[in-house]
Amino acid sequence: MTDKTYSKTPFDEYAEEYDNWYDENKKMYELELEAIKKFIPKPEKRKKGLEIGVGTGRFAKPLGIEYGLEPSKSMAEIAKRRGIYVYEGVAENIPIDDKSFDYVLMTTTLCFLNDPIKGLKEIKRILKPNGKLIIGIIDKNSSLGKIYESKKKKSKFYKYAKFYSLNEVLNWLKELRYKNIIYEPIKLYKNDEGSFIVISAEK
Ligand SMILES: C[S@@+](CC[C@H](N)C(=O)[O-])C[C@H]1O[C@@H](n2cnc3c(N)ncnc32)[C@H](O)[C@@H]1O
Fold this sequence. Notes:
Blueprint: H1 10-13, H2 15-24, H3 26-37, E1 49-52, H4 60-63, E2 67-70, H5 73-81, E3 85-88, E4 101-107, H6 116-126, E5 127-138, H7 143-151, H8 166-175, E6 179-186, E7 196-202
Parallel strand pairs: 1-2, 1-4, 2-3, 4-5
Antiparallel strand pairs: 5-7, 6-7
Bound molecules: S-adenosylmethionine.
């Protein structure tokens, strides 16, 4: 998705529908939320956090993340209603100064970036020294990843997604010299081997 085209995505057309998914799939939402929460600095530490691809704020709000970056105006509108301060823009070209944030969350968004390596590099730039990056992905090689990939063409939202494997993401983080890289696979349903993976790394 480029700066020029980002106003016409399915996220702009169907933002309310996207947001409603979380009410209709509470169990999965709660599992993802809990998994990410473990990696987020505790509120009493008063760390400054940003969610990249904040969407409608379904994660930022309950996780106490005050800032978001979002290319879709309709998604951003809903996040703003939830009290999130939203910068308009894309991960590949973040309109934020160097060393501004203690931590950055990016969940189910990496697969929408035109250039994920550029995005991860930009995130490192805006993190403070030793700042933390938390990423949530659906692993391309997992059972859910394979289902998403096979149904992609019919999905409003995932039509344009490019899923990545855990190893691809880990390799990029290593190439970009992120430190202390750890990850945790999360089972989202019965018999799932851990399709949702939370990865944490430091600048
Ligand atoms: C699947 S949604 C995830 C939203 C939110 N993180 C959540 O989990 O509910 C992906 C979001 O990434 C945004 N997005 C798409 N391309 C992007 C880019 N290049 N940089 C940042 N965000 C992007 C979309 O507009 C959308 O809001």
